[in-house]
Amino acid sequence: MPRSQPAIEGVQPVLRSLAVLEALNAAGTATLTRLHAETGLPKPTLVRLLDTMIAGGYVRRVSRTAGYTLTERVLRLSSGFRHGDLVVEAARPFLSALTAEHKWPVALATLDRDAMLVRISTRQESPFSTDTDWLNRRLPMLLSALGRAYLAFCPDEERRLLLAMLKSSKAAINAQARDEKYVSSMLAGIRKRGYATTAPMRGDASMGLAVAIMEGEKAAACITMRYIGSTMSEAEAATRYLAPMRQAAAAIAAAHERMSINAA
């Protein structure tokens, strides 16, 4: 226990620097007095932090009266953060809330070229999870509930391009893409129902119920609830969980929009 305190104290300058960066980002240009009011940090501490960030090229002093502003160098701090990462951050509390209420694990995935990449999962929070860890795994578009939901609700041109890639693929998991009549009928059914389910797979006891998170006409991501198929039929699962899944998707979309505006 005595060892933990120095480690905590050691990160305080980093946290304080980040608080200053956030305050400057919100204000555009801010005086020392304003930064003191915004962060609650003592002015001598602020001066030391600002001088350090000026030396590093992240902050510029405009003038004695105008105060300080950020430089373009701060853009390097966000260069690894993709727009798609925002929807992941927006989704976290809503996915946890779904699992807390309904007990089944929930996951979110975003498009990764010709597959769906699982970005976040509540598998560890669910008492009923039987799946292996799918985090950061790519799932097939036409077999997974996530992929089917994305294909059904993405814009027409994007769907056309995705299906063209899948049809040209030599992978067995994409073979269904060459049956255009089947795919068209399946996706039409998903749009009519408002949700997608997992293709039956031998040896897999779990089923997925997936809906899209819409950003206007675009599918920003999809979420799926994984339940054990022997416990209920698809119709029963939809009756129980479709409404809360849709509510969560709408709430995530709204939170994503707010975060996108703040990040702009």
Order of helices and strands: HEHHEEHEEEHHHEEEH
The strand count comes to 9
Spatial strand order of the main sheet: 6-5-4-9-8-7
Task: Assign an overall shape.
Answer: elongated
User: In this structure, how is the largest beta sheet organized?
Assistant: 6 strands, antiparallel
Q: What portion of the residues fall into strands of 2 or more residues? A: 15-25%
Class by alpha and beta content: alpha+beta
Low-confidence stretches: 1-9
End-to-end distance, in Å? 42 Å
Total number of helices: 8
Average pLDDT metric: 88
Q: C-alpha Rg, in Å? A: 24 Å
DSSP helix fraction? 40-55%
Describe this structure in words.
The structure is a single chain. The protein is an alpha+beta fold and 264 residues long. The protein is 50% helix and 19% strand. It contains 8 helices and 9 strands. It has helices at residues 4-27, 32-39, 43-56, 83-102, 145-153, 156-168, 180-193, 234-263; strands spanning 29-30, 59-63, 67-70, 106-112, 115-121, 138-140, 196-197, 206-215, 218-228. It has a 6-stranded antiparallel sheet with strand order 6-5-4-9-8-7, with helices on both faces. Helix 5 packs across helix 7. The radius of gyration is 24 Å and the shape is elongated. Mean pLDDT is 88; it is low at 1-9.
Q: Could you outline the blueprint of secondary structure elements for this entry?
A:
Blueprint: H1 4-27, E1 29-30, H2 32-39, H3 43-56, E2 59-63, E3 67-70, H4 83-102, E4 106-112, E5 115-121, E6 138-140, H5 145-153, H6 156-168, H7 180-193, E7 196-197, E8 206-215, E9 218-228, H8 234-263
Helix pairs in contact: 1-3, 4-8, 5-7
